[in-house]
Amino acid sequence: MHYVDPCCFDRRCTHDQTDWLERGAKHCAQDMIVLTFLFAGQDSTAAAMASCLCFLTASPRCKAKLLQEIDDVVGTGQLKWEHLSQMPYLDWCIKETMRLVPPAVGFARQARGDQLLGGKWRIPDGTPVIVNAMGMHYSKALWGDDAYDFRPERWEQGAPHRFAFIPFAVGPRACTGREFTVVEQKITMVKLFQNFDFRRPAEVQPEAGYTTVKCGDAKWLGDGFKSQLKNQCNKFRFVYVYFMLGAAAIGPGKVLPLLVALSGCWAQLAVPEDLECERGPHAAVWKQVKQRFRSLLEETPGALFNPIPEEKLKTVVDETIADVKAAGGFERTSTDECGYGKLALQLLSVCLVSDPMAVAQTVQSAGESFASPVLTLLLDIPWVATALSGWPLFGLLAQVSLRKAGVLEGIVDLESIDGVNKGSVYFTAMRKAMVASDLTAMADATVKYLDNPDVAGDGGALGALTALATQAAVQSNVQERLNLINGLQEAMKKAVHNSQDLDLMLATRWPLWSLIHFTVDAISVAPPPVKA
Ligand code: HEM
């Protein structure tokens, strides 16, 4: 049974809760779940929709565009499920509203172990921290000079960073209703606009006793929060992190790593505990799953550079689901369940998707609960830690990539994704070597590519990354290989900022992911290097 402290923060507490029991705070989990669904589920969505109507009413241009979209896609008829994905402008309006008026302006987390953030913020173990979502949403450094304006079109490019837009929080305790609420909001907005028009009255008289808070005056939030929390929880030490004012002053380069750490329950800055899944409640089953995935990649002939046959993938996916289900590993009762294992299973499952539209947006369409952990593992967790966990992340990504490029061939302009043209010497040589799984030929082609100024640059950024990955793959000195792996991860961080970027990079026909798998996975079977 999980008990909840009356103080606002301890819903997140990961420590022993029995002391709260003794103090008589005996709200049991079931009560809290019902309350959470009532308040989290109803109030927040209502607030978001009310704000959206306000913005649209205040902005006739945006409202006209939205009405046009609803007219074109749904008309006056019955709204259908498939209509929802055909109305990007509606999606942008909802996002833009939750950016400017996030129903939850911030959220609380608690430090798991002592933390040193950005080399200077010391956060002792157990310290509760407020993450200021609204501050992040208003950062001009991230969103541009018009950060305070309602401009749905900005979403055409997506968020400027995957943690720049966090109305639902992020990490393992993010909102479980996020997909649901967006659908709910879209349906309601369409129904409303199909039947009503909303206009601003000629004159608005604020009701007596009410204060109008302008978005630009966001500082009130910090002080308001501070005193409220102080009153409620003054027996705790608090660190107040104000992104709202701080973000603009210290710049996103410093704010973002800080936010990454805060918003992911601290698990994302340092390597999460038990990445290898050896201590959870179903550790034995996950160990088996890991071994099964590894064998699939290691024992299927040619699997390093070629797609594994679909039937084989399906068998492994089905068997894994059956085993984990039988052990109760999918039940939401345990917070310690193997996240990496579940993600690996999802990655393998997406290889079975054949609809080109879905394949083109593998990561994006799988939703934030998939995209966010994949990006975190790829960009924030050192690749060496992944290697040591034994989970073959890059081998699975290589399979996704091989599958994706195969399905999209002839449908999407893969040449422009790869940054090549028909005469690309390096690309042609690499592809030829790939079919033959010939690493030596890849190494030779890479040496020629790097040595020849006429060919160097052939293939753009992906060609350069592949060359780096090939160098790392054939590097026998462990320390040198580690340096190259770190270099590769840094290069990946520069190239991939969000799920769209990752989807594009996964559609490449360069053997990039296979080479990274070959390079990184070697560490998981070799003992870690001894530090000099
Ligand atoms: C616009 C609508 C919504 C917004 C902005 C929103 C925002 C959030 C945020 C920021 C959190 C994290 C709170 C924290 O960490 O303290 C959260 C948690 C949660 N939300 Fe939502 N939410 C919305 C709609 C919903 C809906 C519709 C449901 C249910 C149907 C829902 C269910 C939950 C639950 C159960 C949690 C707790 C998750 C956990 O602790 O693991 N939310 N929400």
TrEMBL record:
Species this protein is from: Cladocopium goreaui
Top-level taxonomy: Eukaryota, Sar, Alveolata, Dinophyceae, Suessiales
SUPFAM superfamilies hit by this protein: Cytochrome P450 (SSF48264)
Coiled-coil positions: none
Protein name: Cytochrome P450 CYP13A2
Keyword field contains Iron: yes
GO terms of molecular function: heme binding; iron ion binding; monooxygenase activity; oxidoreductase activity, acting on paired donors, with incorporation or reduction of molecular oxygen
Cofactor or coenzyme needed: heme
List of residues binding heme: C175
